[in-house]
Amino acid sequence: MAAVLESIVLSASSRPPSSLPPSMTFSSPRISLSSGRKIQSLPGFIGLKIQAPLKSPSASLSSKVPRVSSHKTSIVCEAQDTALDIPTVNDTTWQSLVLKADGPVLVEFWAPWCGPCRMIHPVIGELAQQYAGKLKCFKLNTDESPSIATQYGIRSIPTIIIFVNGEKKDAVIGAVPKSTLTASIEKFL
């Protein structure tokens, strides 16, 4: 089997297509082989311009348009407003908040660098609201409290453990749907 290696040369033109606004700048790199044959023209994108904030006083914060700060030119993520704050537990509060708690306790073992953990945070927040008064929900950062994670054999995160009267009753590993967590919770209410 023979393979032919040819060098690729990219050239770009800085002329934007006439159908686009002047604020967007495009380039069209062309690929040519060392033999001089041109293969095709590829579109390229050089920049992005952030739109100025609306000056209308009737623009509400609940609209679907991303909010743009008038003082800084940064976009604020709408998802920040939807996440619920789940109380944290650590080495010093573990005994009193989890092991000596009356009724069932759900603990999410997580870490700040864990993508699936960030995905499941809003679900745990919704469950905390849904089962308020029936179930206590906490989160434990495994980087800050590794001894507790080791004690309960946490080998991957997120791991959600349900405790009843200080005893581990059920564990769910991974970013699972809300229905899976609800089924686990309902067994102990």
TrEMBL record:
The protein's superkingdom reads Eukaryota
Protein name (Swiss-Prot/TrEMBL): Uncharacterized protein
Q: Can you name the source organism?
A: Pistacia atlantica
Q: What is the lineage of its organism?
A: Eukaryota, Viridiplantae, Streptophyta, Embryophyta, Tracheophyta
